Amino acid sequence: MSKETEAANYYSKDFEWNQLRLEIETDPSFLYHLLPFIDHQNVEKTSKDHQNVEKTSKDSVEDSQAWNKFHTCHSTGKFFKERRYLLKEFPELASCRDYSKVLEVGCGNGSTALPILRAKKNIVIYACDCSSEALDRAKENIAAANLISSEHRFCPFLCDVSTSGFPKWLACSSCQEDAVSCNKGDFYKPFCLENSCCIGGVDLVTMIFTLSALPHNRMPIAIRECFSVLKPGGMLLFRDYGLYDMTMLRFDPEQRVGYREYMRSDGTRSYFFSLESTRDLFASAGFTELELEYCCVRSTNRRNGKIMRRVWVHGKFQKPKCSQS
């Protein structure tokens, strides 16, 4: 089977999510995944603002360190798998206008950026990650692909959007104020695309298996930041772990750090989204939902022949377009 055929077949719907849900929720061995989560370590703590700020800062540093360690341990070529399915699932990436600007949030080792750069010869990708090791791997993988002008079309930068926000050069305050006025129906002033203060916002944002790596309480911040740097009418393309994915069911009870939220032994996090939780997060930030569904895939482990049922949430969300006054 060719890689192209494999990509087309692998990301189809192989089973019904509701059938899986019924099976999991009636199995006593999975009961602990369904129970409310009580953080016993924080029950006695107060909720003073400065304590919350200190905890968020500490968590952010620990998250970055964990992902640095992860990418250091998985720096070989075997770990890098180009996400060829992206253009099929998100054709907007290939059909966008020339010289569009894409912001990839959580670029990892470049497995998302590379197929986009291949498909669109003049697209520019601004790629951020909280891990400096991830950015190094991404730059190496993009360079190794020998794409035309990739050094000018792939722009990586270090950023934890859930704590520090995006740098001002993505979209300055003036651009964001213009976008707010535009959405309220006021006279629209064009983004300052040619000004030196910023690039004037982006046309598309990708969040591919990124949001789940954040603590749940910091997800709304990250999504609001994405909304702020998108141009009116711009889209956010989302794919992440879905509720009852096989990786969720493998976590032990002691690895729970929140409701549907887990921490691996290496310190990296994973959250599993339902359609409802995803919808609430993006609607709260101001996005309009265009597509939202479970992607249910059955695959077979070649070594042991075991069938694996994977669940992802696939979504497309749009920043409201300008209304004409």
From TrEMBL:
An example GO BP is: methylation
* Keyword Transferase on entry: yes
Superkingdom of this entry's organism?
Eukaryota
Enzyme Commission number: 2.1.1.-
Recorded hits in InterPro entries, A to Z, give:
METTL2/6/8-like, SAM-dependent_MTases_sf
Q: Name one GO molecular function term.
A: RNA methyltransferase activity
Q: What does this protein do?
A: S-adenosyl-L-methionine-dependent methyltransferase.
Q: What PANTHER family does this protein map onto?
A: METHYLTRANSFERASE-RELATED, TRNA N(3)-METHYLCYTIDINE METHYLTRANSFERASE
Q: Which UniProt keywords apply?
A: Methyltransferase, Transferase
Question: Where would you find the membrane-spanning parts of this chain?
Answer: none
Key word Transferase present: yes
Similarity comment: family membership: Belongs to the methyltransferase superfamily. METL family.
Report the protein name in the record. tRNA N(3)-methylcytidine methyltransferase
